[in-house]
Write a structure and sequence with these properties.
The protein is built from 4 helices and 8 strands; from the N terminus they run ααβββββαββαβ. By secondary structure, the protein is α+β, with helices and mostly antiparallel strands. A hairpin with a 4-residue loop joins β6 and β7.
Length: 151
């Protein structure tokens, strides 16, 4: 009987742990309440195109970074910089001593180069570096918001 009781209490504790973890599963488009944001404590803050984002501690599917804007809305980023107005060679030369991307894709037909970084912080640093190195190019760090979901 003690074994059954110990087994059942272990299963119950595991279920509670999973439900607590699921409660903090953030989704792009979700708006967090002030109490939820407060529970997160200090988060790294990054500025992209004059907009500040806080990096959430969990990532989304596919290694996407989850971000929180000033209004408490969750955004996501694949940590990719899209570049137009520069050749792949220009981009590689410009990237030089900046943060190293994990992948580079070039779409010659459209003139777009996509650099993917391991994490959001590296992508933000690379964006600043590349803006200095490639002033003639148009650079965009892709940050996406799904449709707003009720909180």
């Amino acid at each position: 009987m003690k074994i059954i009781y110990a087994l059942l209490s272990g299963v119950a504790m595991a279920a509670l742990a999973l439900s607590a973890q699921a409660a903090d599963a953030y989704q792009p488009g979700q708006r967090l309440q002030a109490k939820q944001i407060q529970r997160l404590g200090q988060l790294p803050v990054y500025t992209v195109d004059k907009q500040q984002y806080r990096l959430l501690p969990q990532s989304a599917a596919g290694g996407r970074s989850l971000l929180l804007d000033a209004q408490g809305v969750v955004f996501s980023s694949q940590n990719e910089i899209l570049i137009t107005g520069a050749t792949e060679n220009d981009v590689q030369l410009g990237a030089g001593k900046g943060p190293v991307p994990v992948s580079v894709q070039s779409f010659a037909a459209t003139g777009i180069v996509v650099l993917r970084y391991a994490d959001f912080g590296s992508a933000v640093s690379a964006l600043a570096w590349l803006q200095q190195q490639l002033p003639q190019a148009s650079l965009h760090l892709a940050i996406e918001q799904a449709p707003l979901k009720p909180s």
